[in-house]
Amino acid sequence: MVMPLDLDQLQTFCSIADCSSFTEAAKRVFKTQSAVSMQIKRLEERLDTKLFIREGRKISLTHEGVALYALARRMLRVNAEIIDLFREGDLSGNIRFGVPDDYAVRLLPIVLSSFQRTNPKITVDVKCMASEDLLEGMSAGRFDLIVFSQGTMEEFGELFRTEKVHWVSAKNSQALKTKPIPITAGPQTCLWRNDAIDGLNRVGQDYRIAYTASDATAISSAVLSDLAIGFLPESAISQGMQIIENKKFPRLRDAQIALLRASHAYGGIYDALANHIIDEMGNLEAGQAGTKAAQ
Fold first, then answer.
1. What is the mean pLDDT of the chain?
2. CB of 245 within 8 A of CB of 295?
């Protein structure tokens, strides 16, 4: 008979893979670093394979480690589902949740307010920031769950919503008539910015990056003040804006919205929030405010 793997060892393995650090993983699983090292040694002996490549302080997964990581997360999820099956009483606890500011202002209050009404004993600590910062924060262990809006670049992101991204201006915009047209966009690491610039260059639109902002609120402010033209997902378009539709502003790639969990964030309070977000945000209609097209 094949002996089952140790779930505690798999949890430690996933924690190391999440943060690329034995020291940080030890803090997350509440063990000493020597205990964590011993667990990984026993797991590698059990599987007769190396799971990590150690190059100085840098730690990465081997090919076998990558394969195990995907399966280990599935086992941890099933384990949480079994525990939940026999759990009694109301759910309670604290969740560290991150969300892009694109969705924080208009969609999140609807989603979280309904969640808190049905789960009053669960506290959700929310931080709003750019998707790149959310992903970095997840790796650093600052979040249990995040929603990120740059698509499912992360293998374990759960895609649950797709939205069109539109060029937008203020109504009766004067910036739209300016040469070169002033553009407001995110930092150079933003995929939407790169997609927009590639499109403008492709159609020969004369433009300049007039305002660089790290969040959608600042981009929206620049658009509403008629300081620049911007691009936003449907849910972030607000009153006072108009969608631009002409050949000088090419179609942008859709925004893919995904949820990402830390490897420990399965079952119980985490599933309660994750399922609620996917159900509610996945079904929300994009706002229709200010969407009359500018030709």
1. 86
2. yes
